[in-house]
Amino acid sequence: MVRKLLICGLLAGLCGGLLATGFARVAGEPQVARAISFEARQARAAGEPAEKPLVSRAEQRGLGLLTAAVVYGLALGGLFALAFTAAYGRVGRAGPGRTSMWLAAFAFVTIFLVPFVKYPANPPSVGDPNTIGKRTAIYLIMILISLLAAIAAVRLRGILAERLAAAPAVVCAAGCYLLVVVIAGLLLPSVNEVPKTFPAVTLYRFREASIGMQAVLWTTIGLVFAATAERVMTGRTMLPRRRPAGPARSAAD
Predict the structure, then answer these.
(1) Other CB atoms closer than 10 Å to residue 72's CB: what's the count?
(2) 252 or 31, which is more confident
(3) Stretch 72-101: mean pLDDT, rounded?
(4) How far apart, in whole angstroms, are the C-alpha atoms of residue 175 and residue 150?
């Protein structure tokens, strides 16, 4: 069963990566191009020699973007399947389809959205190259804190549900999660390396595209895995079956 679910996860991740690639090509690539043009203008104004990229922009927009998104989607799909295997039947009593969609929403919020609030995405040409290691490390720390706090909140909800009603248990657990991530966000160092002259609209559109790309990715993973896992585990599809039409009745009947 785990092997079949893992295949479902890889298929869902592949579909998510492909759709996210298309979204990023349409919504994100124009903003990246504008950011690179801004960096080139800044370099010319400072009298610095233009650096020739190791990979051309055409290859970055095409094969490079596709490869990165697909590999990323496959990795997330495999991890999603393992997480589903661990969570199914232990958190609530929902079926495979609903569990998959709830898990995808959970992953989108805890792994991406909450860390994004503290450390929003910047175009590739924005930021000091010398601090990329530090920025990556604190971003991963924020993801880890958010994920662990969310797992702890889910367990807390289960404990409180035995003593309280379902709604108060959910509210208390969610409040504890928010408290932990807010404190972590306040304690972790801030990063603001966007030049003051950088176009605000380009930065906003890029961050908007980043959120959209992740939303497309996780929504696709959740829906595709829900459909395939439902079929694997129950032998049924998520779509309701049509009832066969009965025999036509005569006017006399």
Answers:
(1) 16
(2) 31
(3) 85
(4) 11
Q: How far apart are CA 102 and CA 110, in angstroms?
A: 12
What CA–CA distances, in Å, run from 217 to 1, 37, 48, 64, 77?
24, 28, 39, 17, 10
| Predicted TM-score (pTM) of this structure | 0.81
96-107 vs 65-87: helix crossing angle, rounded to 10: 120
Residue type, 119: Y
Q: Return the higher-pLDDT residue of 197 and 173.
A: 173
Distances (CA, A) of 244 to 80, 241, 248: 37, 9, 12
One-letter amino acid of 47: G
Q: Which two tokens stand for residue 11?
A: 């298929």
| Mean pLDDT in residue range 103-128 | 89
How far from 229 is each of 22, 78, 95, CA to CA, in Å? 25, 13, 10
Tens digits of residue pLDDT in 231-249 = 877 766 555 555 555 555 4
d(CA 166, CA 76): 31
- Two tokens at 141? 């720390």
- Say which residue, 148 or 90, is predicted with more confidence: 148
Which residues lie below 8 Å from residue 239, measured CB to CB, with a gap of 6+? none
Residue of higher predicted confidence among 45 and 119 = 119
What is the C-alpha separation between 87 and 45, in angstroms, rounded? Answer: 55
DSSP per residue over 145-168, as a string?
HHHHHHHHHHHHHHHHHTTS-HHH
Q: Please compute Rg for the chain using Cα positions.
A: 23
Nearest to 16 by CA among 64, 75, 73: 73
